[in-house]
């Protein structure tokens, strides 16, 4: 694997909706010590609010029709190759990448998940944490593997769940830490130079 020195990595962010994590990564890419360049946004949803940030920041984006997954992934792989993408960051991307896609891309793929993995893979993480009366929740950044939310964990951060927390207030608290966690996880990978 290539040593992470010398040049900035070309990053593609995949989104489906709000795009607040995408925005935090774009902001991070602009600070001096950052070694990433966000140069491609992929969205499966033309109404994704995150696309406004792509436009504002003049980042190339493509809206992919996912009604035929095989064709969608084939198209995306073409865009990734053309744009020399070194790293994919999934940020609220609501489609599951096939194992064929993961193999063919060859470079690392990261995801951010709103729970302390391996707890609560999949959806409704905040509701499940509250229902189980957990004392803590949090967020995790991990490598993407063919098994959902199960790849190697890079970084996690906890938040306390208060008795007064609802699904909504917990989601808000977790999202706030997500915005710092994703850049921190990328920095950790760079420090370890294992990409
Ligand atoms: C985040 O909570 C992320 O952890 C999860 O989906 C949500 C996306 O939010 N995978 P946003 O689109 O980044 O605002």
List its salient traits.
7-stranded mixed beta sheet, 36% helix, alpha/beta, binds 5-O-phosphono-beta-D-ribofuranosylamine, Rossmann fold, 195 residues
Can you walk me through this structure?
The chain has helices at 20-29, 50-56, 69-82, 99-105, 125-131, 167-192; strands at residues 9-15, 36-43, 61-63, 87-90, 109-113, 136-143, 153-160. With 195 residues, the chain is of the alpha/beta class. It has one domain: 3-Layer(aba) Sandwich (Rossmann fold), CATH 3.40.50. The protein has a seven-stranded mixed beta sheet with strand order 3-2-1-4-5-6-7, with helices on both faces. β4 (87-90), α4 and β5 form a beta-alpha-beta unit. α1 runs parallel beside α6 (167-192). The model has no long low-confidence stretch (mean pLDDT 95). 5-O-phosphono-beta-D-ribofuranosylamine binds at residues 15, 17-22, 91-92, 112-114, 175, 178.
Relevant CATH superfamily: Formyl transferase, N-terminal domain
Biggest sheet: strands side by side, in what order?
3-2-1-4-5-6-7
Number of helices: 6
Bound molecules: 5-O-phosphono-beta-D-ribofuranosylamine
CATH fold annotation:
Rossmann fold
Point out poorly predicted stretches: none
Oligomer: single chain
Structural class: alpha/beta
